[in-house]
Amino acid sequence: MVESGLADFVVTTWFGVLAPAGTPDSIVRRLNAAVVDILGDAAVKDRLDRSGLIAAPSTPAQFTGLIKSELVRWKKVIDDTGSKPE
Fold it and tell me: pTM value?
């Protein structure tokens, strides 16, 4: 990407757990707490590490922010390049 003039262009892959729109906050918080607990487990961390993955637990608000920022970022890439779905 540097040769293309995009020196600061970084692409990462991330995974997350989502719930349907309208899920009550109490359930979202419980689900988030369970996922954070699981990601904190030493055996899970080891398995993820061996797979080349880095666990980065967050709050529901932080994850929402990530998704929103990724939508803005990739919309700009699509708009700037004129990409079209095939």
Answer: 0.80
pLDDT tens column, 20-34: 999 999 999 999 999
C-alpha radius of gyration, the chain, whole number? 17
Q: Give the DSSP letter of residue 41.
A: S
**Beta strands of the chain (E only): which ranges?**
none
Three-state SS at 13: coil
Token digits of residue 82:
């004129």
- What b/e readout covers 14-23, taking b as 16+ CB neighbours within 10 angstroms? eeeeeeeeee
